[in-house]
Amino acid sequence: MVRGARQPQQPRSRLAPRLTGTVEKPPRKRRSRTEFALKEIMSSGGAEDDIPQGERKTVTDFCYLLDKSKQLFNGLRDLPQYGQKQWQSYFGRTFDVYTKLWKFQQQHRQVLDNRYGLKRWQIGEIASKIGQLYYHYYLRTSETSYLNEAFSFYSAIRQRSYYSQVNKEDRPELVVKKLRYYARFIVVCLLLNKMDVVKDLVKELSDEIEDYTHRFNTEDQVEWNLVLQEVAAFIEADPVMVLNDDNTIVITSNRLAETGAPLLEQGMIVGQLSLADALIIGNCNNQVKFSELTVDMFRMLQALEREPMNLASQMNKPGMQESADKPTRRENPHKYLLYKPTFSQLYTFLAASFKELPANSVLLIYLSATGVFPTGRSDSEGPYDFGGVLTNSNRDIINGDAIHKRNQSHKEMHCLHPGDLYPFTRKPLFIIVDSSNSVAYKNFTNLFGQPLVCLLSPTAYPKALQACAEAYGKSVKNIFEKSTVILPSY
């Protein structure tokens, strides 16, 4: 997600984002190519000379915007995955073009239907791309309100049946677009704890996959069935159902609500340090996951966020006045989600977070990974002698849950040892190790005297903020010399 000259300011809960400005005039060097495509598109609609000039220009402008939006969207994959500044201007331009494209097709739908042959699945594809932009903007910024925007677009696609006619066309690639839309929609609903919608979507996706595999003899049948198995296992592994006094089911959330912040002990100081950045790493063998998001990562990322807030509805509350009474923007800690990273990938993201960590801020590292145990007894007891947690490699996993060194004279190279994190203790650090070999970090050394917390648990249920806040309240005064509490402040 990227901000730039025209970054999204406050998410809007309508399908069409606000559009400002007019459609850009296509450059001359691209016009010949667009005109050629236009001629091919409109050849079935009658003689080309009979088409009014205004309608020709409408189709030309639409083709230009559509082509430009695809170029920008495809370019998103080339943006650096780490760093919080490099992506912003490019994302802003992409948002700009897509908002113009969406508004343009709304204003000129009849002409585009008659002259361009615009189909409903094409409208759905544009809406789906905008939903993806909002979702990735959430991943880049950790602002949960953008999840609501992604949900609004995905939900509108379903309600307006934009993909309903895809199954009538003998084009398997279009059906795959529809299946991918369902998978993305499910991820967003999971993150928003909309479990009733998730169950409906899973049923619809199952029916769509069954129809797809029946009509087309494709090689990806096994992969789509695996997607269904993963999401079913994910839902079963994370039951969040609670009965209230009326015996009705209530969906609980791991996110921090304004009224749910834990109370602090008397004399504890808030605000000297704040949690600004987090690396959430999942690398356990055979763990339940969906879309490269393990259950542990899923719970942890929510625990580091506030509940989504509809800023527009807040502004419309009775008595809400200008400027002085406007709600301030709430910033969640920035997060990197790393699923089975290699050691070099993990270190690259860790170094980027360390470099960009603001003053008076804390970096959180959550390690949910398979334990790596040393074999034999070492003569020394240094930070590389007790193993650590697994990082990804191309070789086969040994003994399922535990990796053992084959050569006792060398340390395990596909492992994050406690000593690997020592250079980053130059800044305030909060480490949570959720592993079968978390004991390797029990003697973690604070070399530079900066605030440091290291929580170890082999079977921790990572409702992180609640657990961390509880740990702070009981023992942080013995760990932080300044009795500092790391909690997001409202």
From TrEMBL:
Q: Give start-end of the signal peptide.
A: none
| Domain of life of the organism encoding this protein | Eukaryota
InterPro entries found in the cross-reference section? SCAI
PANTHER family per the record? PROTEIN SCAI
Q: What are the GO BP annotations of this UniProt entry? A: DNA-templated transcription
The cross-references to Pfam families, in alphabetical order and at most eight, read: SCAI
A molecular function (GO) term: transcription corepressor activity
Gene (name only): SCAI
In Swiss-Prot or TrEMBL terms, this protein is called C9orf126 protein
Q: What is the lineage of its organism?
A: Eukaryota, Metazoa, Chordata, Craniata, Vertebrata
- Organism annotation: Homo sapiens
Q: Which intervals of the chain are annotated as region Disordered?
A: 1-35
